Amino acid sequence: MLPIVLLSIFGIVLLFLGFLKSKAILLPATLLFLLVTLAVNFLDWNKTYLYFNDMLRTNNLSMVFTAIILGSAFMVVALSNSFIEDEAAQPAEYYGIMLFSLVGAVMMVSFENLVMLFVGVEVLSVAMYVLTGSDKRNLRSNEAALKYFLMGSFTTGIMLFGMALLFGATGSFTIAGIGAYAANPQMGLSLLLYVGLLMLLIGLLFKVSAAPFHFWTPDVYDGAPTIFTAFMSTVVKTAGFAALFRLLSVSFGGVYTFWWTILAIITAITLVAGNITAVYQNSFKRMMAYSSISHAGYLLIGLAALGTQTKQAIVFYSLAYSVATISAFGVLLLVAQQRSTQTLSSEGASTESFDAFNGLARQNPLLGFAMAVSMLSLAGIPLTAGFWGKFYMFSTAVERGQIWLLVVAVLMSAVGIYYYFRVIIAMYFRDGAIEPIRVAPFYRYVLLAATILTLGLGIAPGLLQGLF
Amino acid sequence: MLTLALILFPVIAATLLLVTSGDTTKRLAFGAALAELALAVYVFNTFIPNAESQFGFDYPWIGSLGIRFSSGIDGVSVLLVLLTGLVVPFIILSTFERNYERPGAFYALMLYMQAALMGVFTARDGFLFYLFFEAALIPIYFLAAMWGGENRVPVTFKFFVYTIFGSLFMLLALVYLYYQTPATVTAAHSSAIADFYKLKLTPEAQGWVFWAFFIAFAIKMPIFPFHTWQPDTYVESPTPATMLLAGIMLKMGVYGLIRFILPIVPLGVETWGQLAIILSVIGIIYGSIIAIRQRDMKRLIAYSSFSHVGLMAAGVFSQTETGMQGALVQMLAHGINVVGMFFVADIIFSRTNTRQLDQLGGITRTTPKLTVYFMIMLLGSVALPLTNGFIGEFLLLHGVFTYNNYLGLAAGFTIIFGAVYMLRMFQKSMFGPSSSRTESFADLTSSESWVFVPLVVMVFWMGVYPQTFLKVTEPAVANLMKYVGTTAVSLK
Lengths: 468, 492
Known about the structure:
The structure holds 2 protein chains of 2 kinds.
Chain A: H1 2-17, H2 26-41, E1 49-51, E2 56-58, H3 60-78, H4 91-110, H5 114-132, H6 139-170, H7 175-182, H8 191-207, H9 216-223, H10 226-251, H11 256-279, H12 284-304, H13 310-339, E3 343-344, E4 350-351, H14 360-363, H15 365-379, H16 385-400, H17 403-429, H18 441-459
Antiparallel strand pairs in A: 1-2, 3-4
Helix pairs in contact in A: 1-2, 1-4, 2-3, 2-4, 3-4, 3-10, 3-13, 4-5, 4-10, 5-6, 5-10, 6-8, 6-9, 8-10, 9-10, 9-12, 10-12, 10-13, 11-12, 11-17, 12-13, 12-16, 12-17, 13-15, 13-16, 13-18, 15-17, 15-18, 16-18
Chain B: H1 2-17, H2 23-46, E1 54-62, E2 67-73, H3 78-94, H4 103-122, H5 126-135, H6 137-147, H7 152-180, H8 193-197, H9 203-220, H10 230-236, H11 239-264, H12 266-293, H13 297-317, H14 321-352, H15 368-381, H16 388-403, H17 405-430, H18 446-464, H19 467-491
Antiparallel strand pairs in B: 1-2
Helix pairs in contact in B: 1-2, 1-4, 2-3, 2-4, 3-4, 3-11, 3-14, 3-18, 4-5, 4-6, 4-11, 5-7, 6-7, 7-9, 7-10, 9-11, 9-12, 10-11, 10-13, 11-13, 11-14, 11-19, 12-13, 12-17, 13-14, 13-16, 13-17, 14-15, 14-16, 14-18, 14-19, 15-17, 15-18, 16-17, 16-18
């Protein structure tokens, strides 16, 4: 609960800091705030608390998810120093909104009541709509924000409808209450429960961009300023999956047989749609958008095979995915800024194409290496964190005997190698621009930290154990 | 502890090499590889020939899951450890006349590769094996794609995707096996290979576990029809990388067959083994026939290697003791011969700038040393008695004959075809009138000669007194065969 309070206060403080003449204080202040929140988060370690009339429950799992979210936010913010140079940017507002959005994310990982889940989702989403459109001079950014907002509001409606139906069926908004009702199927469960569950699922699956509710993702990810894309693809996804896990494991474990097939089919569609379409992208950023869809698919495997391993699998996967994604976007930011490859195509869409990375490894071994490690991790190659993430996910499904789903996942992982390696090929085996790219020292440390974390978790995945 | 040293030493050496440059790098890399060889030879010498795993190292890796960093050497792995130790220093020595761009990275990648291979051959834990199996791929991919020929990027990419694709199925099988193991004292399941051996899987499960493993290993070796990545990759890779690929890496596949498929899914082998053996035999003949038609030396050797590895797979699937023994010995022999052959091709290419047989000829006139060494390596490859190839092929064919006469007969063509394409290559390149390219062909330099000396020693040693090597593998193979027998019987 403390993180929520602190983040809200810090967000407001940041808005006031925006009145200062110099923007230089904003970035360190935000980083400091995030660190403080991260430290405070662990004060309640090994304790379980209920807050606000049983609306929120914090336990070790929710704290770990909060830590992943705050850590991702910290890294994204650390990579956002270009705001200082951009005259039109309003970093105080951006950072403030990011902190506010984190409030929503923390609610989503620790809700005990569906109303709190709804509030969390909306707090996070509204902030994202604004950040997506924050590049006001860019038409694509505006369009993306509008698209995101319209579709997001629509699914909010569906989700709310679902909650109402669940309340109708069970007479309770608390996930424990719903769980108690759903755990007694012999009494004959109300149809409202099933319909409500499906509608609620649709809402959350939209937020984590699972197919067939993923159509907004490429446009929004592509249109949003890169730094917010990084934020969106990590924070929103982690919070969304934490919420899904909490919801399904606490409330709907009793009706597992009803929803697992549906979720498994959605998983398969997501994997296929994300991976196959990613192959055809010429823009790195759009590829990353489809890659984020495909990773939603891998994460869904763990939910469709809900079992003893799922918790661990989702935590590990979220962490591995977030670190690798942030690192990739971090490199993209530098490359896109300094190699001016944002050429406009005939439709007016910018293409941050793979060619921008040509020869990068030769001029900037560090950037090349960071990018390569992050791509290897996303592709799930051993000795990176991504491999163990996939390993845990696959384990959950094997435990449940869902072999057909795994075969789809395996085939799609092989497809994934194709597009992740395009970047590596461009960086290492093609000749490109001569001039090296400047990397600020702090930026370098963040990328280095992400790379070391990815490799460290790849070599010793046991490090995370015992945390939750 | 020794196995850990075998794995870690190249890693440390390679990481140090990254910061060196110029000729120092070569020498340091060679020194490091020699030290590793000394370690491997020490292991081979002190190895007590029985089925027990020796020189072990065991450490909990992901404790609560029961996954351990567990490595050791038994009779099946010992020859491959020796091969990995033996071949790498001479591959490095073979590059002394050449200068590769960014040598620090080049030699470091080779040593990383060696470390991963050592890991593969000594892993006693299923997931550890998988990890090294995949990790070996990354250095070789960068070696091939950064220093390779013109067409290297798409070719090596195909190789990479192809082999990863296969390995992912192996991962599925491993995870499945893992969940079948009973709980241990400390964890819910175990991923030790020894525990996999104890499993009693249903025939249906054995069937698909067999295929999951088989696809992975068949692509790696490669077995027909999973071989399409191989010739191009061999040709496009820089020769040291090709030597690593053909000399050691493809043995990972054969080793996998012996280590995983036969003991774990004997019923799967019973059901599908015939198909596997037929595919292998098709590969033998198909590879040889294509090899006969090749004009490019490197491509010819690539196809010959494809053909030879088919025989090894057939021998393993024959499920006979001789077949398995043959496969193990032939892995060592083939590793030595193919490295020698690729080195010859590389020497010829570096002096004439061509590998096309019709542009060569008459090299013997100026090169007594090369001719002799080339001929010896070649005789080893065509399995002349008293050379290393003979022992392996004899045992393998014996195994296949025991399994089925007709298949044995078909596989036997490998000897005839092998002689045809190898001697044709020798004749076209070394004899006949010299061409403009080969007129002033210089004989071997001393560093080049030094590459051949140990290889030639091994060719004769294994050919004349194979007992040195057979006796170390024998107990382990007998032990494995016992596994194959008992598991199959107990389920019937």
